[in-house]
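PT: before anyone asks, these are the final sequences, not the draft ones from last week. 850 residues across everything. Please model them as a single complex and drop the result in this thread when it's through.
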Amino acid sequence: MSEACYHCGDKIHGKGIHFDDKDFCCIGCKNVYQLLSNSALGKFYQLEKGAGQKPQSGTLEKYAFLEVEKIRKKFVDFEDQDHARVTLFLPQIHCSSCIYLLENLSRIDKRILSCQVNFAKREAVINFETTLKLSELAHLLDQIGYTPNFGDRKTSEQKKDRSMLYKLGFAGFAFGSIMLWSFPEYLGIEKDNPEFRSFTSYLSLIVSLPVFFYSASDYFMSAYKALKFKRLNLDVPITIGILALYCQSLYSIFINAGPGYMDSFAGFIFFLLIGKWFQSKTYISLSFERDYKAYFPVAVTRIVMDTEEIVEIEDIHIDDILLMRNDEVIPCDSILESEHARIDYSFVTGESEHISKKKGDFIYAGGKLIGQRSALKVMKESDRSHLTSLWNEVRSEKEKSSRSIYQDKMSVYFLAALLIIAAAASIVWFFIDSSRVMEIVVAVLIVACPCALALSAPFTYGNTMRLLGRKGLYLKNTSVIERINTITDIVFDKTGTLTSSSQYHVEYVGDELNEDEKKAICSLANSSTHPLSRSIVNQFIEQQISPSESIDNFEELTGKGLQGKINGVRLQLGSSQFVGVHQTEKNESTSHVRIGEKCGTFRFSSELRNGIENLPKSLDRYALHIISGDGEQDAALLESIFPKSTSIHFHQTPEDKLNYVKNLQANDKKVLMIGDGLNDSGALGIADVGIAVSEEAFRFTPSSDAIIDAEALTRLQPFLQTSAFSKNILRICLAFSLSYNITGLSFALTGMLTPLVAAVIMPVSSITVVCISTFGVLLYGRFSRRKKT
Amino acid sequence: MGMIYIMLTVSLMIALFFLVSFFWATKTGQFDDDFAPSVRILFDDETNNNSKTQTDGSTEI
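LR: through. Structure below.
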């Protein structure tokens, strides 16, 4: 009996499900395994252990909207008589096993002809016969754990990123070629052969032209823009260096004095672009900028003249009547037409308890409908609902660039020092040999160029980002690292952040149950993947009750509950109406159970994530705050873990959270906000650093600066420390690059800056800086891992 | 001695050829996904009738 589910790798609670000599945590995983092994796809499990996804319990009905012609057209790339091709976004793709499984999809259903995975974009391009309906295809993917996300219609093209590769490619070609042709020059061989020298010089010139005008263009634009706004960034001294280098070389070639510094020029641009390219390699697969469309459904059912039709949410008008099913997100502010409904607003307000509404009540968009179908009358269109207007307002306010603040500060000192040295040099040389003044000044400008400095920040921060990403914290860009180092206060959201949205504390109230009855209930609950059921099972297991009974006539009714027969006794577990029990407690998360003649109630309350107890202690350098949309029911729990100085607030609406952060910032505090990214997206946006907690990193998160895996949250303090350390690495790199600049300056000032010297100094300095930053961060990662017990 | 001019020119042509291939490969999207192809080549060709399952990783534009 192994500890981990063979399919998804999660820990198995209790006995689990035993099938085919393997153990699974739940029926869903076992079903996927069965499907895969029947289709001869067992290799899936050999590529990576526990790579499977727990499938969701979705029904085919969920995808019915894909059959609506207008909606279908949006997703199908190509279609003819017999075949169609569709590109689907599958955010759960995360490893080589996923690629294996998806590309062999045709073995599960022969109507699928081929499938190709684009791992970077997390997409699958599927060719299939038109006898297979798109909704069936989506359902199949849902069943094996790769639920397609239709709401995420990313329109950004990757073509823009490719220009970086073109520029880099050409600069590399130019660098290699020109250096090759310059070799005789270094060795002083062909000094007496002016024809040869001019041949190679002009060849170098021709090749360098596109480098100057195309590859280096970004730096010119950036420097120009900065100067236009009377600001300085690092690209200004870089541009000065480039211009000095290029113009001197042009001059030198035209008067036939030699090939100038064309090789250093090309190499210079090449190394700079490598730094830029490295910095731009972020997590394309994770999106930090999704908007409300990815959260709301693509389409809903509308009732028009007593017939149901499926429409896209953009086509919903005021006064339409919508028919919502269990677990569907309500896309528009509306009024309830049915008699009763229960709404789960945890995503919007953070309240973990379901709200009961009756006919005529106003319902905000963003809530999830729980239970039986209900009809709603639309009051506001979806993009103008309360929730989306809150998101939109915040996003337009925030303006943070991804430029390194550190580098830009350095550039001021650099320029100042440069100008002083150049002025001093020209004065001195004026008296020594005034004909060489120009040459010396230019040499000083060339050598003072902060190439190594320009490389140190991208590589240090880029490597730090990767290290953090491997450990579970994904940053949007490198400027986040710098902002983290300035943090004074940390604000936590409660629901979904400190507490798990999938683990609950369970309390039982009702008729006494004996051992056998408890075992029976545990076994029934074990057959469901619903988080509430799993919590019940976990609770029983802690009391040494195992889900070992077999169930007859098992049925799971969505929105209602579970039922079955164990040892001849009939059991039901679910909502009060289903079980037939009068609900005495209002507005609480409860599940009712009836076994034989007895009945009772399970009460759920939120539970802190594993290991959170140690987190506040490690963060004693910072002022801590907790703001929650919930009531005070968990106050005692929080107070027991957090220090007395923590300020805790309850009943906070999304606007309250936003204002709280704003107030802190008005008092000159730098705020790190940690939330689940949904009901606190406003606060996350306005905080200096906003981190969204995610149970699956590939799910939806609107505007945050970083995403942290739920189980990595306890390691927050080491993450913050890593960011601080990377600043030290940056300082070391700065020291090194300065030393190279000074060495080069000594050559330039004494008039000995030959092309050979320049060509040697620059690559050496660049490579040193890259090595220091890469190995520095790498070793820190290894070393700190060994230190942890 | 004149030989070297010819050799330099030829080597430039060859280098240009590789540069153009690089541009073409980038344009047709071969560098967009750098993880999947590395994994894909390690999949075995399964010996069963269903030859349609083999994808050769070529991208159509």
